[in-house]
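SAMPLE LOG
Freezer: B-3
Tube label: C17
Construct: single chain, 271 aa
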Amino acid sequence: VCNHPKLVLTPSHPEYMTILSDLRAKSSSLSEIEHGCKLPALRQLLLDCGIGHAASDTSTDLVVSPHRALIFCQIKAMLDIVENDLLKTHMPSVSYLRLDGSIPPSSRHSVVARFNSDPSIDVLLLTTQVGGLGLNLTGADTVIFVEHDWSPMRDLQAMDRAHRLGQKRVVNVYRLITRGTLEEKIMGLQKFKLLTANTVISGENASLETMATDKLLDLFALEGKSPQQATNSSGANLTMKAVLDNLPELWEERCYEEEYDLTNFVKTLRQ
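STRUCTURE (predicted):
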């Protein structure tokens, strides 16, 4: 419903025939982009980027757009809606290619190569699963997410398709989000997951310098017992000095000299 009612109103839906009858009475249909809030927004965004022109524009001049876009959806059904209900019907001047699970893996490289090499192709329609990994799409400088993944890393990987070596232009990323719906929670979870990952895997936590003394001593605890878990006979916690006293004693310098003496090592080989 956040994207388009056609994704929910299938022939098996109990209200399907009733809604179709109401739309026919108003000389409308489910294919009208006004029934899906994201399609009018996507059309306006493409026009603002200089991609294509409205169907009412009678100009037939072929103009190379100043920007080229990657449009990501989660499912093929939404790509079908964008392609059939928006591009073909309302923006016929927009030239596009499509890359999803229906394209054989052996043919995907040729689609990518054609898009990158032909500036007259304005848009590449992709699913996040197929177009999110391993592709170099530096021919585009605009990334548009119509749908969003629960995992922020998948969306970041999709963004990186345009942020690759060889990209010479600024890449702008746009997200179409329906206010007051589940999508806001998805974006909130994405932000939380990224914040958590950045906190755990950060430069400040990557060094022993930031570790407290008791945490550092935990690294030397034997038999799975930490110094904090160890107690003395009276039940009181051991002090740090007691923990250090319990660590194995280091060898004397003479022991190291005998153990790693080259002459002694050669003698053992001859025996």
